[in-house]
Hints:
The protein contains 18 helices and 14 strands.
Amino acid sequence: MHLPRLLYTCLFYFLTPFLFIRLYWRGFKNPSFRHRWAERVAWYKQPHLQEVIFFHAVSVGEVESIFPLITRLLQQHPTRKILITTTTPTGSDRIKAVMGNRVEHVYLPYDLPIFIQRFLTHFKPKLAVMVETEIWPNLFALCAENAIPLFIINARLSESSYQGYQKLAALTKPALAEVSLIATQTQEDAMRFIAFTNDKNKVQTFGNIKFDSQFSAEFVAQGYKARANLFAGRFVWIIASTHRGEEAMFLHSYQQLKAQIPTLLLLIVPRNMERFTEVENLCKKNNLHVVMRTTGKICTNDTDVYIADTMGELKMLYATADVAFVGGSMVAVGGHNVLEPAALGIPVMFGLYMHNFKAIASGILAAQAAIQCQNQQQITDVLLRLYQQPNDRQLLAKKGKVFVQQNQGAIDKIVSQLDKFSEPFLG
Length: 427
């Protein structure tokens, strides 16, 4: 083990007790953080599938993005065994809800050699696939030592991340040297990876797999049915994946708009389940009538805000809306996926902070397929215009669908590469 990785490993050993303390602390708001700790150190009470293709998707966003890819692999190779790991309970819940027993799932153990080797011995993966840019030095090194080909798919590398990698080059360069293929989202990402690794042969641009998300006719019908049952006669404005500091802006806009849009209903989907009660209390503090989804109640004419205090229903709820605003973009979180509402034909708005989706934001704005708002007053003005101008609303929705369709195809390229690398091992 070279010195930088040795120092990293020693530091990780020292910090591990504090990581468990953090899990316990987070468990006060979300009890799921206190469950399945044995998986964090790769202790398993029951046997699992072996000789798997191993995917790591850190949380909900990455998990959602790979479902079409996993589904395609299972359709083409029904006997293939697939393991998906996450680090968060919300990501874990989505895997169980969507994939059921079609895949294996555990938490990825902490990046210490004793845990990683135990994990690899237990599952015996034949191919490892990291989603986006998850770099774990010990995991990568031990994959190499165990002759496990390693991919990074849907990889992105911003300029700030590139500078961060440079500062830790003694640790990150050897890790990336163990990767067989880096499949990037954009050419800009590819150029940064090539500049960092000095190896253009392992870097290819396949596009962003988020464009390949699919919505079945049955799924869309569920959304339409929910709209008819819950929101009949209302103009539904969904505010999706919100973070602390954002909801207050939209509640203020709602109060400004209500006189001009009497049927307006604010549908808020907080990003984190720990904040459901906080958002409910904020609405009540503003004297707004709230319905929580888990109560099963429908919205009356007096309902101002409907809060989706559930997980995993965002895509369906998009199908209930007239206009969507994608959160995480009015505070410095960096934005969330705007392609899901666009693919469904829902007019899309988002805010100033989109650095986590820079290429997508630039592309969809260039296609005039979404509207970016700089401040709360602009949000109010844009929503009013879209309400008053149905033709503008329909055109925006149409351009959004076209933008998504024109950028699809990344999954086809990734599946081809996975087949090429896995064929000698899996048949």
